[in-house]
Write the structure tokens for this entry.
Amino acid sequence: MAREIVLDTETTGLDPRSGHRLVEIACVELEDFLPTGRTFHRYIHPERDIDPEAQRVHGLSLAFLAGKPTFADAQVCEALVAFIGEASVVAHNAAFDREFVNQELQRVGLAGLPEERWVDTLSLAQKRFPGVHNSLDALCKRFRLSLSEREKHGALIDARLLAAVYLELRGGRERRLDLTLAAAPAMAAAVGRAEHGPRPRPLGLRSTEDERAAHLKFIRDALSGKALWLRFGLG
């Protein structure tokens, strides 16, 4: 089964090259495009101030983040790397999240995640819906995904919403029926294992002669001879 990690972050600002840091990171595990229920979520003390505009978006303040681990803590950096493993990473406007995540990993002496491991849902959406707005909010509305639980941007809820959007972009909710080529061998094997006694062809009549005569009289009287099968001598 294909394992992927949907990832979202919240930050102190827009540019990691000017020293901005992560304040929240969340991951949702997918197998064959569907959530498994396993998630990773951490609030992170950024060791710097938070731009007012960024705080308005995610609602996280330094007061709230006081006492939270820094990215260098093993419960953040090492746990994140272990959770992602060798999976591909799915993100919306992936270059933004990739730059922040890799900066944090490299800061603590860990290898960053190479670009080829990232899947950008913004790029997928732009190919499918060219010339229109393709923010996460816009895609949720386009796919009729509820935003009722979301008052501000939060990494975990946004990762869950993005997982649902990604499913739609990769083929839609019909995947939940599991009628995939991957499932076909298992389905065929299950059919092959089924044991049934031989069935007569055609099946024997289960109505009595009197019942069939009464039904034919009803058809002729009710339809006045207009039943199609009567024209072909099937009555």
Q: What stands out?
A: The beta strands are 3-11, 22-31, 34-43, 88-91, 118-120. The chain has one domain: 3-178.
